[in-house]
């Protein structure tokens, strides 16, 4: 297993970097972004620090990497938060100054395309945090979800164990950022369904690795992930994006991980609740249920072929649905299939 260290934590009143290594969407949706910044200041007591590409769409990957490096290099900045995801961060990480990141470890928060940075920090031996987005979560219409806020606050400011909680309500149908008026009311939510457990009744404790499944597949193609030997004993976390990959795609991506020897080494797998609605695919509730069922079946089939004894927990709120729980990336997690509890060490 890769040796990893937790970076020092920020405290209220500190300056934190707000960066857009994936996409400069704050420039397109300033009303959402400014709301997120205000909540970061007022709700968390942190002072955001922007960089030249934070609000720039289509910025050169080298410029985005320069900003990311600068955020870690600045001694007055104590954490780094990604504004949002995107689809080309894989072109940015090769230009980051690894020596700077390794010498100045800081908590990095991001998900989706930010899996590139989370995995990159993991390879440098630094624990990061899967989750949190200035636009999506701090800029959530109506108000940030209480479960997200509690998890994010604990991940930012504390270092002990934190028990994750199944959401009493969830949503995957966001309001339209193009209409500023939609910030005035909360998105559609549905009754929570709890977690779904599968596999042996045992307790697994280990370090996490994974992230967005589509991005992990890209990282495998570019040979930028740790080896199967380095990841043996880790707890895999996976979630899928708003691109709504089909069950067939999900199975094939996991099958490829299995053929690489990865799946056999994960004693437990946490699977994020599947996002099943998007503006160009406004599924009915029945279609959403069918989509989510098919995705769970795809994960089950892949694990049956490569690691049938793994503990699997489905519908954990750690991905593209609302609310979102923060999970340390490379940090410790305890998956208790006896009492059906999940705890993480922030």
UniProtKB/TrEMBL annotation:
**Keyword annotations from UniProtKB, A to Z:** Carboxypeptidase, Hydrolase, Protease
List, for all copies, the residue spans of the domain called LD-carboxypeptidase N-terminal. Answer: 16-131
- Keyword Cytoplasm in annotation: no
State whether keyword Hydrolase applies: yes
Instruction: Kindly give the Gene3D superfamilies that the UniProt entry links to this protein.
Output: Class I glutamine amidotransferase-like (3.40.50.10740), LD-carboxypeptidase A C-terminal domain-like (3.50.30.60)
Name the Gene Ontology molecular function terms of this record: carboxypeptidase activity
Residue stretches making up the LD-carboxypeptidase C-terminal domain: 205-335
Family under the similarity heading: Belongs to the peptidase S66 family.
- Protein name according to UniProt: LD-carboxypeptidase
């Amino acid at each position: 297993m890769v040796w990893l260290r937790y970076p020092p934590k920020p405290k209220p009143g500190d300056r934190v970097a707000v960066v857009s290594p994936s996409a400069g969407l704050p420039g397109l949706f300033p009303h959402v972004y400014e709301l997120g910044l205000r909540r970061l200041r007022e709700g968390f007591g942190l002072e955001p620090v922007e960089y030249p590409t934070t609000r720039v769409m289509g910025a050169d990957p080298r410029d985005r990497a320069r900003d990311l490096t600068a955020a870690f290099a600045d001694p007055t900045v104590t954490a780094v938060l990604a504004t949002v995801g995107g689809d080309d961060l894989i072109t940015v990480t090769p230009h980051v100054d690894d020596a700077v990141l390794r010498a100045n470890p800081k908590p990095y928060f991001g998900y989706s395309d930010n899996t590139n940075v989370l995995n990159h920090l993991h390879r440098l031996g630094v624990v990061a945090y899967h989750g949190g987005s200035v636009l999506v979560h701090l800029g959530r219409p109506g108000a940030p979800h209480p479960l997200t806020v509690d998890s994010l606050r604990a991940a930012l400011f504390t270092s002990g164990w934190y028990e994750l909680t199944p959401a009493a309500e969830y949503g995957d149908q966001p309001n339209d950022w193009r209409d500023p008026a939609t910030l005035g009311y909360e998105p559609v939510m549905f009754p929570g369904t709890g977690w779904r457990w599968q596999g042996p009744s045992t307790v697994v404790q280990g370090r996490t690795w994974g992230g967005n499944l589509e991005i992990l597949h890209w990282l495998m193609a570019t040979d930028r992930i740790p080896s199967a030997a380095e990841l043996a004993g880790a707890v895999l976390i996976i979630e899928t994006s708003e691109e709504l990959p089909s069950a067939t795609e999900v199975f094939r991506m996991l099958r490829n991980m299995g053929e690489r020897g990865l799946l056999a080494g994960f004693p437990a797998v946490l699977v994020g609740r599947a996002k099943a609605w998007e503006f160009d695919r406004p599924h009915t509730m029945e279609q959403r249920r069918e989509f989510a069922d098919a995705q769970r079946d795809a994960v089950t089939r892949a694990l049956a072929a490569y690691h049938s004894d793994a503990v699997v927990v489905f519908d954990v709120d750690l991905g593209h649905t609302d609310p979102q729980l923060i999970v340390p990336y490379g940090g410790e997690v305890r998956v208790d299939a006896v009492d059906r509890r999940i705890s993480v060490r922030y």
